[in-house]
Each structure stands twice: as structure tokens, then as C-alpha cells.
Amino acid sequence: MKIKKKTIMITAFLIIPLILFLLSYINYRSQRIDNEHLESFKSQLMTTVQQNSSFDMNNITPFEWDRMYVIRPYISRTEMQKVIGIKWTTADTYIGYLICDKTWLGEYPLDDDIFHKLIFVKDNKVVLDVTLDRNDVDFIQINSPVINDDSLFDIDKADERNIIKTSK
């Protein structure tokens, strides 16, 4: 009888952590976005902002989107996910997800006044998460969310900064 009890205990101690690991990994895979358009979008945005005085966001996004959110500095990851109503991660690896998304280390990805994010959503799924330097381009004056049909912006180039404003 003692051997059976010992075997059950050992099995439980092995299976429970395995189940928890699998559930966590499945959660990571379901929340992960690949951000495949990140570099092309940033490049197109910077070129557009430097060369124009206004633009339509639809003309510079190499992907489809329904809504765009502007995330201001110092907002926590948890608050971002509440505002948008979706949980997502851009972590390339499961270990990165555990360290940056599941610990206090990654709770404040915008931990300086200089950074803000644009989050693009299509069909209630995040399709792009881009962190921008406000010295290069500043969307802080835009009210979120921006709907795809209403994405015309003016660029105020005051003080050698590119401040983006809703087009009138």
C-alpha cells in the first residue's frame, strides 16, 4: 500500500508541473503576435513624416487594421490590455514571455516620457505593436481609438519635432 501511495505522489508531482507548463505555453502561443510589419511600417512612417505635412495612415500601413490606439508613456502592460480589451505579447520566445510579460520586469514597457506606442487592431486581434520615440514622431495629441475610416493626420513640425494631430 505504501508503494502505491508513493507512486501516486511522485506521479502527481511530475504531472501537475507539466500540465501547468503546457497551459502557460499554450497561453503564450495564443497571445503572441509576430509583428512582421514592424520595420516596414516604421520606415514608411519616418519617411512620410519627414517629407510631408499631412498623411493618411491607411497609405503607410502595409497591413489591414480596424482601430489604432495611442498608448501614452508610463502606462502599464496590464492597463494597455484593459484599454484595448485584448491580451497580446510580442515576445519572440517563451522564456522572454515569462520574463518580460509575467514578471514586474516587463510591466512598464513605456517607462520614460520619450516613448509611446501605436497598437493596431484588426478583427479584435493585435496586428502591430510599435514603440516610437517622441523625438522622431509624436502621436500623444491623438485621441484613441482612431478608426480606419478616419485616419487623416497633420504634421506639426514645430521645435524640430514631428507632432501628429488629427486633420481638420
Which percent range fits the helix content?
Answer: 25-40%
In percent, how much strand structure appears in the residues?
15-25%
Structural class, by secondary structure, is: alpha+beta
What shape does the CA trace take? elongated
Please report the number of helical segments. Answer: 5
Give an overview in words.
A hairpin with a 2-residue loop joins strand 3 and strand 4. The chain is built from 5 helices and 7 strands; from the N terminus they run ααβαβααβββββ. The longest helix has 30 residues, at 2-31. The model has no long low-confidence stretch (mean pLDDT 89). The protein is an alpha+beta fold. The strands form 2 sheets. It has a 4-stranded antiparallel sheet with strand order 4-3-2-5, with no helix packed on it. A 3-stranded antiparallel sheet has the order 1-6-7. 38% of the residues lie in helices and 21% in strands.
Quickly describe the structure.
This protein has 168 residues and is of the alpha+beta class. The chain has helices at residues 2-31, 38-51, 57-60, 77-84, 94-101; strands spanning 54-56, 67-71, 115-122, 125-133, 146-147, 152-156, 163-166.
